[in-house]
Amino acid sequence: MNARKFLYIPSGLVPVDKLIKLTSRKILLPFYHTISDEPLPHVNHLYTIRNTKQFISDIDFFCSHFEPISLSELFEVVIRQKPLKKPVFHLTFDDGLKGVYSIIAPILEKKSIPATFFLNTQFIDNKELFYRYKIALIISCLECNYEKHNNKLPEIPGVIASNRSSLKQALLQLKYDDLIIIDSFSKNLGLDFDEYLRTEQPYLKSDEVNDLIHRGFTIGSHSVDHPHFKEISLNDQKAQVMNSFTFLMQKFNIETKYFSFPFSDEGVRIEFFDWLYDTENCRLSFGTSGLKDDFNKRHLHRIPVESNAGIAEKIIKSEYLYFVLKSFLNKNEIQRT
Ligand SMILES: [Zn+2]
């Protein structure tokens, strides 16, 4: 998203309706994780989240230029080429955090805005904590400990760092496969993730998911436990998708399949996508590359609104301007092999 930041100032000069017309991009897919009026320790250090007021201002902006549509309507538009009279938007939220139920759903219901929530099946009911959230909690814990231990850097097996900032960066680089390092180091620190899951309950519970379905929201898969797909084998990619869809069907009776890639779809091969649509019968899948096209029309890209603390209008307009600039270079389609 960095290049887009340079377009924030010029984006203020162009009305959004002009940008939509100029680019013919009539489908807007903003993407969030959660909304909270309190700091969330497990998300801190990873990305910024919006508070209720900012979120309402975002959606008022979306509604003033785009019409809200459901995910099945989006499918009709994308796959069955249902004509669009007006520009449309569909909201999606990844990771299945509890703010979806307590804050987001009530706000959206009041304004009659449909949305989709993509869940990691291993995290529903607070069974387990995403490894990146564990890292965020470790960083917060270290920051408190520096004071107590005269600024001494802790030794972490497999992590090389010479100062606080490089240690934080090194921790943020840890991967899905480094779970043993993450778990053993957290034990040394006295951090108890099970206790955190019990007391904070950061994720949705099964009865809340059922209630969201009953109230008309769409539920999709975000994999079993959120690995970076480019770091796992093709067989593991398929297992993450199959197992999560099976869980959603058995537990919540969800038969229509939608999938959003955990982290990103970067480096995911055409072979996987072909399997996803042809064998697994997934209707639509989602990445996070902004206003881009992909090789298959079933794969749609969303705009990560939380990647910047600015107002949605500026983020969306600079995304449109970025699209205009890239169209001169013919670089609005993602290349895959
Ligand atoms: Zn995610």
List the helices and strands and how they pair.
Layout: H1 2-5, H2 8-11, H3 16-23, E1 27-28, E2 30-32, H4 52-65, E3 67-68, H5 71-79, E4 88-89, E5 91-94, H6 99-110, E6 115-119, H7 131-148, H8 164-173, H9 179-189, H10 193-200, H11 206-214, E7 218-221, H12 234-252, E8 258-260, H13 270-278, E9 284-287, E10 299-301, E11 303-304, H14 312-328
Parallel strand pairs: 1-4, 2-5, 2-11, 3-4, 5-6, 6-7, 8-9, 9-10
Helix pairs in contact: 3-14, 7-9
This protein binds zinc ion.
Description of the structure:
It is globular and about 60 Å long. It is α/β, with parallel strands linked by helices and 337 residues long. The protein folds into 2 domains: 253 residues, Glycoside hydrolase/deacetylase (TIM Barrel, Alpha-Beta Barrel); 68 residues, no CATH class. 45% of the residues lie in helices and 10% in strands. The longest helix is centred in the last third of the chain and has 19 residues. Zinc ion binds next to loops.
